Structures are given as C-alpha cells and as structure tokens.
User: What shape does this take?
Amino acid sequence: MSNDFRTCPDTGFKIHLPADKLIKWNAVTAIVFLLIGGIFGLLVALTRWPAVHILPPDLFYLALTAHGLDVLLVWVIFFEIALLYFTSAVLLNARLVGPKLGWLAYVLMLGGALMTNVAVLRGDSSVMFTSYVPMQAAPDFYLGIILFAVGALIGCGLFFATIIVAKKERTYEGSIPLVTFGALTAAIIAVFTILAGAAILVPTLFWSMGLIAHIDTLMYKVVWWAMGHSSQQINVAAHIAVWYAIAAILFGAKPLSEKVSRFAFLLYILFLQLASAHHLLVEPGLSSEYKIFNTSYALYLAVLASMIHGLTVPGAVEAAQRKKGFNKGLFEWLRKAPWGNPVFSGFAMSVVFFGFLGGISGVMMGTEQLNIIIHNTIYVPGHFHATVVTGTTLAFMALSYWLVPTLWQKELFLPGIAKWQPYLFGIGMALVSTFMMGAGTLGVPRRHWDISFADAAMGFDFPAAAYLMMGLNGISAIVAALGAMIFIINMVGTLLLGKDKVPAAAAPEEPVAPAAPPASAATSYGSAGTMEVPGTFVLALIFLVSFILYYFVNWKYLASVWGLS
Amino acid sequence: MAIFPPKERIWWNTPVEKTEVMWVTIALIWALVMFFMMPYWHLTGDQNLSNEAYKISADAYAEKTEKMAALYKVREEGDTGIPVVAPPAGSDVYMLGRLWEWWPVLELEAGKTYRLHLSSLDWQHGFSLLPENINIQVHPDYEMVVTVTPKNPGEYGIVCNEFCGAGHHTMVGKIYVK
Assistant: This one.
C-alpha cells in the first residue's frame, strides 16, 4: 500500500497517487468546461449588448442554455468533485476509497455532460438550464443531466467512505479539519440535491419519451428548485471551505473558533437546503406561509450562517496577520496582505463580492414581496453572477493558483500575468453583476433576445439607461472573459508545459503552507479563542449598514408601485 | 489551521471570543427583523400577491377571457386588430398569455380596483408590467387572481419575461390607465 503514496514536499501531506490522478483529471475537465461555458457566456453578453447583438435569436437561446449548463453545472461540480477528493484523501493523509469507482464517476459525468451538450447544440433542446415544462427538450438532454448527477453522487459516496476509512485507519487524530467539515457540508447538501433532481428529471425524461402524459408545471418547479437552488448551496458550502483553506495556506490562519465556524456549517445543512421557494414567490397556487418560511430558510438561519463565515474568515486572517506583527491601527493587517498574489487577491475579492453583491441582493430578492419587483428581470442573473462567479468561481480560481503548482510540483506557467488575472476577472464580473442588477431594476427581462422589440407587434420603450447598462454589461463581460482566458491558459500551461518545481527553489514570494508533518504533529497555532479582530468587526459593520440600507430602500421602492392584494 | 484537525481535541468547549459573540447576536437580530418584515407587510403594506388561484383548463380560461372581451370591447388596435377592453371598475378582468401575445389590451382607471385574472394557454409566461416593474409568473392550468389598483394614468407595457420559445422576445402586451 505504501507504494501508492508520495509525500508532498511543500506541505508534508501524504498523497494517495490514485487520488492525485483523479483530482487532476476532474480539475482539468472542470477548467475545459469553464472554457466552453465561458465562450457561450461571452456570446450571450455580446448579444444582449444592443449595439452589438451578435447572435440571431435561435442561436442566442441555444447559447444561453449551453452557458447555464456548462458553467453552473459542469464546471463547478467537476471542480467540487476534485475538491471532495482533495479534502478527504489529501487533507486526511488517507487513501481514496474505490479509485475505480472514482473513474466510473468521472466517465459518467463526462459522458452525461457531453450528451446534454450535444442535445443542446443540435438545436432541439434550447429550453434553458431550468427546462420548465411544458416546454420539452429531447430525451438525451435530460438523460445526460441524470448520468452526470449519478456520477457526482458516486463521487460524494467515495468522499464519505474515504472519511470513514481514514478514521478507522487512524490517518488523522481528533476531529476532521474544518475545511473537510465544510466539504462534508457541501457533500451532504449534494446528496439531497441529486435526489431531488432525480425525483423530477427522471419523470421528465419519461415524459419527453412519451411514457408519461402530463407533468404539472408548478410541481415541476417546486421539485426542480429543490435541486436547482440547493445545487448553488453546494457551491456556497464548498467555496467557504475553500476560503478557510486559503486563509490557512497563506497565513497559517486558525479559525477564530472551531465551534462557531462548524456551527455555521451545521446551520447550512439544516436550513440552506430548504430553499426552493426563492424561485416561486410570484407563482400561483402556493401559500404565503409556505413562501415566507421557505424563502427565509426558517427565520434566515442560513443567512445568519453566511454572516458568521463573513466575519470568521477575514477574522482568521486578521488574527494571523496581527500575530505576525501587523498590528498598527485597524487595517495594517489588510494593507500588508499579499495583494500581488493571485491566491490572496482572488480570495479577498471572492469574500467581498460574494457578501456585498451576491449576499445582499440575494436576501433582498428572496423576500416574498420584494420579489415582485425583480422576478425574472435581469437582476436575477446579476445576483447569481455575483454569487456563483465572483463568489464560487473566483474562489476556485484562487485556490487553483496554489493547488495546481503545489500538488503537481510545477512552476506556474505565466506567473507575471497571474498577478493581474483575479483583478481582471473579479472586477469584470463584479461589474457584469452590477450592471445586470441595475438594468433589472429598470425591468429589463432576463433570457430575452431583443429589448427593442423590433419584431414585435406592440413594443415597449426602455429608458436609455437600460440600453447603456446592457452595453456596459457587454464591455465588462469582455474584460471578465479575458481574465477567464488568462486563467485557463495559465492552468493548462502549468500542467502541460510548466517546469518541474525544485522544492528548494520554490519562489520566495509564493506562499506555501508551512511544512508540517502529517496531521498529528500539526500544533503550530496561536492562543485559541482570545484574539481581537477589531478591523474585521468594523468591516462587518460596514457590511451590515449597507445591507440594512439596501434592504429598506427596496421596500420603499416596492411601496411606490401599484397596489396589489 | 483549518486544513488540519483542530489542535484542541475538545474544541467544542473552548471559549468564543467576544467579537464573534457580538456579531452572531447582531446578525441573529437582523435575521429576525428581516423575517418579520414579510408578515408585517402582509398586515400593513399595499403590495402583497394574493393566494387566490384555481386549477382551470386552457379552453375554459380562453372562453372566460373572450366573453369579457366581447362584452366590454371599446375598439381594436394595430395591424393585428387586437381588442382593447375597458371593463368596469371592481370587476373581474381577464388576461391570457399564449405564444406569443398577451390578450387582450386592457383599459383601466387609475385609483380603481380590479380583480385581475392571469393564466396561460400553452407554456409558462412571465407577466412583467413596465415601467412599474411588477412581475408575476403565469402558468398554464392555473388561474391566478390578483387585486390590482393602478396608480398613475399612462400606457404600460407587458413584456414576457419567462422564456417561451423562438418568439419569446416578440411577446408584448399593453394596459392603458386612464
């Protein structure tokens, strides 16, 4: 067995070689789909730029369907499977249970993703990512997603099994690391998500094959969103685990309190996956009681959890920096952070944009009555580009800058431009989100080919500001796409063409985790639970004030529209 | 560090620093405020969607809509000759969505209240009343009833904002408010 392991010279982790290979293939496949989905996304943004309007309508709806599938589903889930193997096998110094099943999972996911892509590209399945019935796609559209989900479920199973076996074989002592705990949260939510997905997509597949006569439109949405929304909660749990990992890797940061952070993850498991009604707040046939309870995750307890992470992640960094002597004033710890390091800059922007842009807008539009003034406007994609792209994708990119060179002992292919990449991509995408949200408040619809209604019998004149914002959205999308392209070239280049790293010659500015021998001896923490983090607390209060102001501004706006009862 | 098992084996007994306690408390209070805003608005606010909805077949809904249109039609409009219908204040007003139009055009009075019925004859559609930016999802087989009180006179557009196939972007309707 011991021949199956190598020791990572930078981190001291014992790495199981079959796990290593699976992590690499899943991560690379993820990045390839990021490229494909990203190209579709750019085409969508350029079509929605009224002055450019690059695609004809049928291709626009096709590209939009493919964009949603390839990035929202395929890119993030492939990367998350790589993360599950990493946070179990590598972080626990354990063997990955059932590598052959891991390959089966990989093949199912890849095959499913390709099958659905082929169905979409054929042109007969432009039903959008959500595939709301009674609009019907070809059977292989649904079958591909189902196969993909089965593969992902197997991956989750291997993750659980690996943790259990690691405990049994005593490859680590005590509790699993917080990062693994976060990944465990993501995996538990994933199981729920996939089962909900099966519950709706399997009957829909039968319906598209003509075996079932009718699927209720409302029932479809309730169950579909138990998958669709929860799948985004997998991303949240996973990228917050990544935040903790990056804080630890870059700064040797220790969670302020294991108890509080783990409790916050537990709140996710209990409440985050409730979500489904966020997408159903203006539907007929559902009661307000259900909508209020569900959309608030029961008293906003999952939002509470996110606000806790929002404090504890930067708090851990502040505490670690202060211990190193960056103690002056409120923010020296932040000013002296490695802003030129893509791992840090990507991480920092991910935390800020996820909270300020994605979090606040999400809670606002998930409020039962406030949803009336934004439902299905382009505000909605504005929100989720902030959460899934500047939150999840940017965090995954940041981690990749450490993971890929460290795990495979390669020098980064283009280290110079890598310093700029997170800023290009992060700020570009933050602007994409902002302009979409701005246009959405003016009523610009999402998933719409032509807001000038040139071909329509009747029209509606959007204000010039709406056109301006859709144009700025297109320009920002180009900036972000450039950033994404640099990332992809850099990662693929590192793997294929990167020079082998000489352990001793690791670039001095490149931060690596302190060389620690496997788990049992990892004792290099500071004093527990007593660190002051005044800077983070001030930042958190700024966040809270923005949140409160924005929330009530929208109530005021709602109060100005037609009376509805 | 978060990538290693916690140093303290009994981590759940370690004290929590006061910044965290304060933040969790503040966040919890804010969460509760946000939660209670929703029932509060049901009691005091003027913008709440009703819970009134019925199952109905496409044919039956089309019949009801056509009956109202025939009864209160005031004129026809545009190349398509779509009827403009001015039902009396307080009455039941029907609008249907189908590939790819909102039918008929309605003429309402500002400050008066109407029971607006919405349903689709085929796929799902998105009723987006602009520039008010009031958005309601429209399902086939479900008839939703919303009591609306138009505020200001003017011409309002109804854009479909739920993707409904190849002609989705041509699906626009109209409501006049006098």
About this structure: Chain B touches chain A through 90 residues (CB under 8 Å). Chain B has two domains: 11-44, 53-177. The longest strand of chain B covers residues 142-149. Residues 53-177 of chain B form a domain with the Immunoglobulin-like fold (CATH 2.60.40.420).
